[in-house]
Every structure is written in structure tokens, then in C-alpha cells.
């Protein structure tokens, strides 16, 4: 952002590879797909659940027993990010902005079934405590002591990208000195059914943009958040600085076909916002989850912007489609690649999940000095999201 460099000073991750940035990056560079569950009677559905963890080890709250997976994951991720940034929430005015496509929809559906089919005795207020799209964000803000603006962004699979863009604007306009921003999503058979009903996995949807055969639904889950702030607020604490968000841009509501045509101009606009040219991009973090329209958006954009020889990593092929949390997951992957100087590849067992990006992505990890990484994400409904992540110059 011009005039207001936004630093990343803390990272919190709960992913199918474990808790923390080291576990996330380590799992990615191994290049093998995360372990999956297959719900009974749903052969075409694969779910990459978050690795087992005890939320109570990170968050001190008796209410944890009343909340679902998304709320527990987000609460732990926010707690980790704040600790990583050396932040005491009682002393700072901190905002929280989180993107999610469906939030706690499985819990909402379960509670609704109790209302329709159950008896009044079963409708304890605590059972509905976590049955709202914004309840994960609200709970996380409470248990982590966040006193500033708290917002949940729900606009499809680019939701966390929009959350990062809003956080950038809040900091740039002086509305919040520090913002924790990112996304959360849970993988659940109900969501797979819903997305299939919407046509995301149908052969006719795939045929619009790609000759690839229809593939199974591969959904992942996790919480991925970053602490964003300026140099002025960070200098007194002297936290580790992972890099900076040079630009964040999102756009929604395009018809599928026009989104493919708009992909390159959209990414070019994001690069311009970061004051970078295509030749300055050292790597790309794409989705690659075998959802044909989504992958084709990214593929079309990369052809027009990234140029030949720029390595592409597709983390969706390894952890599944994390939907509303995808852009945040990819942005944190970009930060890890800058700091660890290593991009993940996709082993043969994950190649099928790379979808339309199959020919573009790395097949094995690549080491190098990655100064600027372009993150591109998209929504089968036509939404586009881009983030430019850059290293801090000496």
C-alpha cells in the first residue's frame, strides 16, 4: 500500500498438517497430500481435516466444550498469531477481520434440525451458542481479548482475500493500528453436498472451461491468520517481521466466462498496486484443487502475467480446497516460502488434485530467494482475489 507499508509480524495456523507455521510449511514441502477422510456412502468426497489438537492447550476457556471445529481452530490460530507478534491485547487496540464462506453451517444445520424435530427440552441456549456464521470470529475475539473492531466477511471462496484487503484499508486510513486478518473454514460432508448441488463438481460445469473430466470433491479445513501493522506500531515491540503485504485486491460478481477473460487484467492491477512488474514476481501461490472453473481462472491469469519460468505452487492439491480461507492460507504459504526460501511441489499422488493447473505446478520442492510472491485465488461463482507478498528489504 503506497505510503503505508503493512508488515506481517505474527502468524497463526491450524491446518491438516498440524498447528503452527512450521508444521504447515513442513507438510507442504513434503509434497504429499494430507490424510483424508471419506464419509460413508460418499465415494466422491475427500475431506482433509485439521490434524488433531487440543484447543484447551492454547486457549483458556470453559466454553470450548460448546463450540465446533471452526471456532476452536480460529481461536487457537488468533492466539498463536498474537503471541507470535508479542502482543498483549489488554495494551493494544487490535481489530479482527476473518473471512469464511460457510462459517459454522454444519452446527447451524444441526441446531435447526433440533428445532424442527426435537422437543423444547433439547433447545438449550448453549447448544445454539456456536450456530451462526459469525460466531467463530466473535468467540475468538472474546477469548483472545480483542477489543477493537470485529468483523466476519462472507462472500464466497474469496472471503479471506476480502478480509485482508479490508484490513489493509483499515490500517491505511488510520481506523485500526493493528489488525489480525485471515480466514477459517471447516471440511464437512454437508458442505460437499451443498457445493455439488450448486454445480461446482458437475461435468457440465467443468466442460464450460476445461476438457478435464469431473473430479471428486476435495475439501480442506483450517484457520490461517496474520497480524498486520505498520512500522510505527511494531518498532517498540521488535517482533519478527515475516514480510509485508504489498497489495491486496478482490473482485466479485463476474459471470464465469468473463472472469476468465478478466483474470490477467485483474492480476496486472494487483501488481500495479504493489508497484511491481511481471518480471519482479519470483513465484506464484495458486489454488489447484481440481475445481475446473476456479483453476482455469488462475491458469488464464498466470499465462498473461507471470511469464515463462516463474515457479507455481498449488497448495490446494495438498490440503484441499479451503474455500473462504484459501487466500489467507496461500498468503501464509507465500510468507513461509520467502522466509524458508523453499516452495513446495506436488508429488504424483497429488497431481490429480492440481486440476487445470497440473502442467503449471512444481512437481518437487524448489529452493531459492523469493522476494515477491503473487497469490491468486478465485471462486467458482466468478470472484477473484490477489495478494502480493514481499520480503522486507534490508
List the main descriptive attributes of the protein structure presented here:
394 residues, 11-stranded mixed beta sheet, alpha/beta
Folded structure, characterized:
The chain has 394 residues and is α/β, with parallel strands linked by helices. Helices cover 35% and strands 20% of the residues. It is built from 13 helices and 15 strands. The strands form three sheets. Strands 1, 2, 4, 5, 6, 8, 9, 10, 11, 14 and 15 form an eleven-stranded mixed sheet that branches. A two-stranded parallel sheet has the order 3-7. A hairpin with a 2-residue loop joins strand 1 (6-15) and strand 2. Helix 2 (69-84) packs across helix 4 and helix 9 (256-273) packs across helix 10 (292-305). It starts with 5 loop residues before the first strand and ends with a strand. The model is unreliable at 203-214 and 354-359 (pLDDT under 50).
